[in-house]
Task: structure prediction
Amino acid sequence: MKIRNKTVGQQVEGVLEKANPLAGCNSKSFARQLRALGQALERFRFSAFDVKIEDGSYLVVVKANPISRHPNITSIECQIDLPFSQEEIERFDWHGKKRRQDSSKMPDPYSVSQILRGAGFYLDHRSVANLMEISLKEKCVTVCYETREGRLEHTEHDFEYFYDCWINIYLRQSHRPKPLHRALWS
Result:
């Protein structure tokens, strides 16, 4: 884990890399990979973060202002970088699958893993060449990706939209009829 402090005058890294996160994982979907990443992130209880794809690996960037218990001390913004390799994502997926097989309870559709899974489901139904960044902040998910045609797509949806994605995933897996509400891929 790398921790960087951002103070006035320091340059902040913000370049998005164009790497295919599925390199080496031909049969894996964005929904599956992002759910596994979300399961790993849930223990940290981050409320806002960015997920960037760099060299085929996921980089989770969390920015926080540490709260000082002393009124005379001002805090500085702290950035935490959490890199995850494809192998780690596969391991998270395997452990998550084992836990899900042993549990009969329904998952929380608003958990980080399920919101990221919904974002992955959204991406799996798009013409995505390169996933560039996903941001979670203030009950919104922003997705930035490059299409196979070379266009840069940027979309923002609230958690309710990804809840609808989650419902569709859940109904597909349980072989129930599809809901009659709005189409999710429009």
Summary: The CA atoms of residues 69 and 75 lie 10 Å apart. The helical segments are 30-42, 86-102, 112-124, 159-173. The first helix runs from residue 30 to 42.
